[in-house]
Design goal:
This protein is 42% helix and 15% strand. It contains seven helices and seven strands, in the order βαβαβαβαβαβααβ. A seven-stranded parallel sheet has the order 3-2-1-4-5-6-7, with helices on both faces. Helix 1 packs across helix 7. The longest helix has 25 residues. The radius of gyration is 17 Å and the shape is globular. The structure holds ligand IMJ. The site of ligand IMJ has 16 residues, from helix 6.
């Protein structure tokens, strides 16, 4: 039995980055739906459409829109459609990141100029571009939430250029919080512990990171997607009305450990 809440009642919330049922964005969607939010999903392109439509169906009446975050035209069109359909929005969840597979395999020192720029464009600039547009529609106040990872703070094997992208994303959260705060829009990030998603597939040493966390994190377990969803509900809700520019670790405490 799932206990229904109303923390996000009467809130229109956009979620970017739902790809399949293992996506962190999906766990956030389930939690937000449970709390009464009206949701909008975006999907990257035709390849992703069917899967995302299926998940949207599971929650009943979630609208889906195509949005490739590397396209300014897509971003403009999407927010125009959202404005026409909803008028006002209250939340934006950004759960998008990408680096070339080769840049997550080799040594960081070998990152190419193109690979670097691509990771920054998709993983960082997309929050700035979407956040700016979303904030214009947050006329009743709003909350922007993005996802980051400890690889921004400490060297994690293979995280490489994504570590720099997440460091830039976190700095972006602070600069956006400063710009948008006067309009009543908060901007925060969840630094989630490792979760087995499509984005973690094929990453070497992933199993050993999960095992290390289970054995050494203060809570002696790995974070569950539902716990990340509940953290996002908190940041999207009025319960966090005094919090902005914050990087909130939802990782069973592993980030506090030295050895
Ligand atoms: C990713 C790479 C290396 C180590 C990693 C990860 N660890 C974790 C991740 C320890 C937890 C997953 N993560 C936090 C990410 O941000 C992943 C981003 C990502 C993953 C891929 C895989 C497929 C691909 N490009 C990617 N771009 C970004 O081609």
């Amino acid at each position: 039995m799932v206990k229904l809440g109303n923390l996000l009642k009467d809130k229109n919330i956009i979620i970017m980055g739902v790809r399949n049922k293992w996506s962190i964005a999906w766990a956030i969607a389930e939690a937000a739906h449970r709390e009464g939010a009206s949701l909008v999903f975006t999907y990257q392109g035709e390849r992703e459409k069917n899967d995302v439509a299926g998940l949207a169906n599971e929650l009943g009446g979630v609208d889906i829109f195509q949005l490739d975050v590397t396209s300014d035209d897509d971003i403009d069109r999407f927010f125009e459609e959202v404005k026409a359909r909803y008028g006002v929005i209250h939340g934006l969840v950004h759960a998008i990141a990408y680096a070339r597979a080769e840049d997550l395999r080799d040594s960081f020192i070998n990152t190419s100029r193109e690979g670097f720029a691509l990771a920054m464009d998709i993983s960082v600039y997309s929050l700035v571009a979407a956040g700016r547009k979303a904030a214009e529609l947050m006329t009743e106040g709003g909350s922007i939430v993005t996802l980051t990872y400890m690889g921004s703070e400490k060297v994690m094997p293979g995280y490489n250029v994504m570590g720099l992208a997440k460091a830039a994303l976190e700095a972006g959260v602070r600069y956006m919080a400063n710009d948008l705060g006067p309009s009543g829009v908060r901007v925060n990030a969840i630094s989630a512990g490792a979760v087995k998603t499509l984005s973690a597939k094929g990453i070497k040493d992933f199993g050993s990171i999960l095992r290390h966390t289970k054995e050494n994190a203060p809570l002696r377990k790995n974070i569950e997607p539902k716990e990340i969803g509940d953290t996002a509900v908190f940041l999207l809700s009025d319960m966090s009305g005094g919090i902005t520019g914050e990087i909130l670790h939802a990782d069973c405490g592993i980030n506090i450990m030295g050895v």
